Amino acid sequence: MTDRPTPTEADLNALDITDAEAAEINAISHPLLADAAPDADDSLVQIDSTTEGVVFVTINRPDRRNAFDGPTIAALREAFETLHGADNVRLVFVRGAGGTFSAGADLTWMRDAIDWSEGDNRDDALGLARMLKALHAVPALTCAIVEGAAMGGGAGIVAACDMAVAVEGARFAFSEVKLGLIPATIAPYVVEAVGARRARQLFLSANIFDADYAAHAGLIDMVLPEGSVDEFVSMLTDSITANAPGAMGDAKRLVHYVAGHRIDGGLMDETAKRIARARVSPEGQEGVRAFLDKRKPKWAE
Fold first, then answer.
1. What percent of the chain lies above the pLDDT cut of 70?
2. Mean pLDDT computed over every residue of the chain
3. How many domains is the chain partitioned into structurally?
4. What is the CATH number of the domain that holds 264?
5. 3-class state of residue 54 by DSSP
6. Which residues are CB-contacts of 86 (< 8 A; sequence separation ≥ 6)?
7. Is residue 262 assigned to a domain?
8. What 3-state class would DSSP assign to 68?
9. Is the peptide bond between 183 and the residue preceding it cis, with omega within 30 degrees of 0?
């Protein structure tokens, strides 16, 4: 058995963007958001931030139960790509306005798609796929907060986050097969979250399920009592303030990398390189020195 080839720089930075790309996006500065891009639609997706390095991305179509259409998907993708260049953001909450996470596809959008060609539908589906990939690649810890319902693509966003919670009474479904369709673009993230066997059961049954079952299946991590969302947000925010933002992003990229490789000599060599790089990095040096000096590191002050 031969070792896997040494990864290239492009492999190591598969979830990163170039300096030029970052300059084209709305950078976040320690960690407040800069001015929105000229074509951004604040009416569809709202972005708020705090001085603790926490960002809230809110789907803002409460009159449509936060259902997706093309412009909403584009606005979400722009929001998530903006966060790729957010050096000091540690935590990103994704939620829906008005007490519903997302009802899935917008009915008007679905009616329009009936008359589209296969090529048109492929281009449209790629928009959703790219939005989900942009969310999955955000360097910070991402957490979906589900209230009301997360259906279809909405549940796909939940799966694409690093973690998720739901308020008691929340409902979920992957009901595409009832329409003669399949949950294609969200499938990679659902399978990653719940496993292939559970994904088959959820996709093929197309049943509505509650928050308790979502937790049992692995789609969410915790069921929150009604009225406790703010308390949860504060708890999670407090828990990450001691964490180095750069190390969090590197740890996330580490998980993405090792999940796709077998444990062999090549992987051992790569993980050794990564920890060595971390130890000599400014964050690594500051963190270890602060620990030895019995003080807080600069990012936790």
1. 86
2. 87
3. 2
4. 1.10.12
5. strand
6. 27, 28, 31, 55, 139, 140
7. yes
8. strand
9. no
